[in-house]
Amino acid sequence: MVKQITPIYEWDPETGVATCIIINGNRTHIGIAKCRPEDRDMMGEKTGCTIAEMRAEIDYLKSVRDDDIKPTLQAYKTLYYSINQSKRFNPDSYETRMLMKKIAHYTADLELINGMIDNARNDLATYIDQKAQTWEKIRKNRQKGKIDQK
User: Fold this and answer.
1) Residue 31 CB: number of other CB atoms within 10 A?
2) What gap in Å lies between CA 101 and CA 149, rounded to an integer?
3) What is the pTM of this model?
4) Under DSSP, is residue 26 helix (H, G, I), strand (E, B) or coil?
5) How far is residue 35's CA from residue 131's CA, in Å, rounded to a whole number?
6) pLDDT bracket for residue 149 (50, 70, 90)
7) Residues 39-95 pLDDT 10s
8) Residue 134: C-alpha distances to residues 92, 108, 140, 148 (Å)
9) Could you say which of 34, 52, 131, 136 would form a disulfide bridge with 20 (CB–CB 3.0 to 4.6 Å)?
């Protein structure tokens, strides 16, 4: 059963800083979003917390990759290299085949998590770009409204 992880949010409207904390076991992942000075007129808690959460999730994925998958894969590769150097090495033995399956499994996991990290980073960049475009349209409409009123 997969344990549901509930993020913890903090928003400071005076500084425009949003923080998201994700606790997974004994690991804590923190994402921070700071509002740019030129965007203070559009600053919002939901946007800040969303960006902070996306950054915390990226940190979580990187932790899984760097602290779990990569060391395990390296250990299996080192073991394979060690037995491969033996004079009695049998590439068809059950143990060797199982070791190769483990290496293939963790290699696929590494590729998968790298893809997830790339997707999460792209999603974050897209979200920020879309917000910036929306804010620019709103600012133009506000300026247009001020000119029409005169």
Assistant:
1) 24
2) 72
3) 0.85
4) coil
5) 12
6) low
7) 888 899 999 999 999 999 999 999 999 999 999 999 999 999 999 999 999 999 999
8) 61, 39, 10, 21
9) 52
